[in-house]
Amino acid sequence: MQNNCTMAVMQSQPDWVSVTAKTTLLNTSLQSLGSMLVAQSIAEGNYEREFHWRGYHGTTARHVSWGVRPDGTLLQISGPMAADHWRDAVSVADHVTRLDLQVTAHVDPPTSSLAADLYRDSLAGSGGPGRPVRTYLYVNSDGGATFYLGSPSSAQRGRVYNKEKESENELYADCWRWEVQFRDPPAGPVADDLRRSGATHQRCGSYVREWFARRGAEPGWQSSAVVLPRPGNRAKTDTARSLRWLAREVRPSVDRLRERGLEAAALKALGLDQLFDNPSDVG
């Protein structure tokens, strides 16, 4: 299937970074970075929440979580936050516990079967030299699908999925994403190599392409491909998602009540009756 498509690389960058710090100086630096990134996420329209994970306690907002426990500090960043700040996180950490690299490509002609095709090919082939790699195919009811290379407990695992379906973002129309997840121990050396590289996009592309190729699932794009400008509008913020949910799930009911002259009752049910002197003023 991939051989019959033209693939234009849209993004090539880190997509998840988890780091820890134990020494006093790095603990302070990592906590400061975590606080700054949470504040940045809140300023972009996301909600702050408490963060609790494996004994770490702290704060989280969309794409960033950080916390402390007696033996150190943890910072996790993902998506655009990881793309922009992975180097900052790695530079003030003692240890990289997870690093995900991704390449997103526009596929022409469009296809909805790429994940299924890769899974079928993996069953038909040997998956490359060495021990066979476990493969999985997960299909969603909305038509999305994800192909996995490697078991969930593996130190390295790859996945390919329909980014348009996953993101519900029209700017990813006809785009598929290839991701490789590196856990400890390979996460640290990969991060170090990426830091030494002056061309992060190209190096990420090389890592992802070579990883899949060694396992018999070579992508249809070239690691040296020019990375096109990434979509300008980032993932929807918590505020935007809340407004979208209200418009989709609540507004139709409110409109029906207004048609029956029950504006005041609708506002009272929503706890908004004190905000308006005259319910008919609501547009």
Low-confidence stretches: none
Structural class: alpha+beta
Order of helices and strands: EHEEEEHEHEEEHEHHHH
Number of helices: 8
Helix % is 25-40%
- Number of discrete domains: 3
Mean pLDDT: 86
Which strand order does the major sheet show? 2-3-4-5-1-6-10-9-8-7
Shape: globular
Computed CA radius of gyration, to the nearest angstrom: 22 Å
Range of strand content: 25-35%
Kindly report how far apart the N and C termini lie: 51 Å
How many β-strand runs? 10
Largest sheet: 10 strands, antiparallel
Structure description:
There is one protein chain. With 283 residues, the protein is an alpha+beta fold. The protein has 3 domains: 1-10 and 100-235, no CATH class; 23-93; 238-281, no CATH class. It is built from 8 helices and 10 strands. The chain has helices at 24-43, 79-91, 114-124, 163-167, 187-196, 200-214, 238-259, 263-269, and strands at residues 6-21, 49-53, 56-61, 64-69, 72-78, 95-108, 135-139, 145-149, 156-162, 175-183. The protein has a 10-stranded antiparallel sheet with strand order 2-3-4-5-1-6-10-9-8-7. The longest helix has 22 residues, at 238-259. It is globular. It starts with 5 loop residues before the first strand and ends in a 14-residue tail after the last helix.
Structure keywords:
283 residues, alpha+beta, ten-stranded antiparallel beta sheet, 36% helix, 28% strand
Map the helices and strands.
Layout: E1 6-21, H1 24-43, E2 49-53, E3 56-61, E4 64-69, E5 72-78, H2 79-91, E6 95-108, H3 114-124, E7 135-139, E8 145-149, E9 156-162, H4 163-167, E10 175-183, H5 187-196, H6 200-214, H7 238-259, H8 263-269
Antiparallel strand pairs: 1-5, 1-6, 2-3, 3-4, 4-5, 6-10, 7-8, 8-9, 9-10
